[in-house]
Amino acid sequence: MKKAVLIAALGLAAGAGAHAQTNVTLYGIVDAAFVGESGGVAGHQTKLTSGAASASRIGFRGTEALGDGMEAFFTLETGVKIDTGEVDVAGTIFNRQAFVGLKTTAGAVALGRQYTPYHTTLTAVADPFGTGYAGTSKNLFPDNGTNVRASNAITYASPKLKGANVELFYSAGEQSVLSAGRQFGGAVDYTSGPLRVRLAVNSKNTDVAATGTNHDLGRNTLLGANYDVKWVKLYAAYGIDKGFNSATLGNANNPYGGVKPTPSTDGRDLLLGFKAPVGPGALMFSVQHKDDRTHFNQDASAWGVGYLYELSTRTGLYAAYAHIDNKNGAGYTVANNTESGTGNTGYNLGIRHTF
């Protein structure tokens, strides 16, 4: 009897030890805003929108210690529409992120649907709005489609050495021709005191093997940086976009009428901005410029301003405004984190809660 009790006790202890090494977290963002848009053929639009500052989502992430410095990790994340209660992409479950991987002292490898190094550069380094609000870098930078995230992806992130680390990204096209539909890229990230600099590249193949459709590669190069001087954080970004589908328009539905705008296949993108603590919150500002070097010369300039009033570390109220000046029939629209926008002027008044 005593032997049986001892065995049972040892089993419970072992189970408790294994559980202690496993960590699963439920997290999310709940974001809703009044959004106004004007300047396009749709006229003045006023609506309640989900995720103007940060896309509303619910997710699960977890890790398990495997011993000898090895760790398993996973993330499953789905987007939701707070205004309607729907999944933000019909027919999907974990449409935002879905990956599993292993981490060792040599770095981390993950497989699944993941963000690209290009998008991460804008969100984490170059854009004071974090690609959200009306002032988002999405207004002129090609941060949409598979430039943001891609399925069937394999990623590698190196350990940080003297402030620097490397990321690699490959997304399989899964067609009969290996190169068709694939996307690959990477980034080099460096931090030293108040300075952070990140260089990212992205190469996208849009060939369709089944129909024999072939295009030249779409290539993006992005240099982003920020510098924190305590009372203000300065931001900058410079991008080069070349090739087919390298810089698709956020709103491709001819938002201004007339001759439909042509996406640039040879462009330069510039952003300068800052984020500063003001009162109980943060003031954000940026200016952007698109230099279209094709014969269409469809340039554009934009500016945006926003303020996040922090009620607590998790809850905040925000207001943002942005305007775009399009040239020669360019079709750029004021977006937010989840919508591409319908005109050249837009504002957001919202609330965001994280958990």
Automatic annotation (TrEMBL):
The keyword Signal applies. Pfam families: Porin_4 (PF13609). It is a multi-pass membrane protein. Keywords: Cell outer membrane, Ion transport, Membrane, Porin, Signal, Transmembrane, Transmembrane beta strand, Transport. Coiled coil: none annotated. Residues 8-328 form the Porin domain. It is found in: Cell outer membrane. InterPro entries: Gram-neg_bact_OMP, Gram_neg_porin_domain, Porin_dom_sf, Porin_Gram-ve. Residues 1-20 form the signal peptide. The keyword Cell inner membrane does not apply. Transmembrane segments: none annotated. Homotrimer. This is Porin.
